[in-house]
């Protein structure tokens, strides 16, 4: 039963084509078809054999493989889109038609994503949630760029875009991150994973401090336990004191 389900899952892509998902769908579907060894039926390198000199068997095999690719396409797009593809004969014809139809929609989506990124701010979100929202938009924007530009042009655009994104991401953090933001901007080399690690640590510190500040006497209780360790008659802290301190802190954070 498991192997049967796995086989079914391998014959589909996770994203269905609709009016807004062409870039992501095209990216996944191309990889999917390449894995099946059928990419030549999409890129036009495998054309329909002519008879003669081709044999009827060769033509039948080609038609069967082409029909298989068409079935994969139709199984991964919205039913309303399928209706407009009935008169197209080959998988290549369908592939080109979809590209011509939805590339224009992708240009509109590019503008929409840029508008959403321009308005995105941290607000009440923690750093990780803020980053995840930005990352979703960045990923789709990159996929659209790859779909709309040549390989060379898209590589240059993506490289230049990384630093701009980091600057925008930092500039829209809440004011309490100003000190750590200034420190990050002084670094000669900035990478998003390193920036995120620093910001998550600062976010955790700020949230912990905020929880301690709202409890009257909470800070004094913690320092009282820490200070008690210095009154013990040992050359070093008693092994139970750190554990007691941990319990107090955990209690305060509940």
TrEMBL record:
Q: Which Pfam families match?
A: Retrotran_gag_2 (PF14223)
Q: Which domain of life is it from?
A: Eukaryota
Please identify the protein, giving its name as recorded: Retrotransposon Copia-like N-terminal domain-containing protein
Q: Species name for this entry?
A: Linum trigynum
């Amino acid at each position: 039963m498991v192997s049967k389900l796995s086989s079914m899952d391998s014959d589909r892509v996770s994203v269905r084509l609709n009016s807004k998902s062409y870039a992501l769908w095209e990216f996944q579907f191309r990889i999917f078809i390449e894995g099946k060894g059928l990419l030549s039926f999409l890129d036009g390198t495998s054309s329909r054999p002519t008879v003669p000199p081709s044999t009827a068997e060769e033509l039948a095999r080609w038609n069967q493989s082409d029909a298989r690719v068409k079935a994969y396409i139709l199984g991964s797009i919205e039913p309303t889109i399928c209706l407009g593809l009935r008169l197209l004969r080959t998988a290549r014809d369908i592939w080109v038609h979809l590209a011509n139809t939805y590339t224009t929609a992708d240009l509109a989506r590019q503008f929409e994503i840029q508008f959403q990124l321009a308005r995105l701010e941290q607000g009440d979100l923690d750093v990780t949630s803020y980053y995840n929202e930005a990352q979703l938009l960045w990923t789709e924007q990159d996929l659209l760029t790859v779909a709309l530009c040549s390989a060379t042009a898209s590589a240059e655009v993506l490289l230049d875009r990384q630093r701009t994104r980091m600057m925008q991401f930092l500039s829209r953090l809440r004011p309490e991150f100003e000190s750590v933001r200034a420190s990050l901007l002084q670094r000669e080399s900035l990478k998003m994973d390193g920036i995120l690690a620093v910001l998550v640590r600062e976010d955790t510190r700020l949230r912990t401090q905020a929880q301690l500040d709202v409890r009257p006497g909470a800070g004094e209780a913690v320092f009282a336990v820490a200070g008690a360790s210095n009154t013990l008659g040992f050359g070093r802290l008693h092994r139970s004191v750190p554990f007691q301190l941990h319990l107090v802190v955990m209690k305060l954070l509940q």
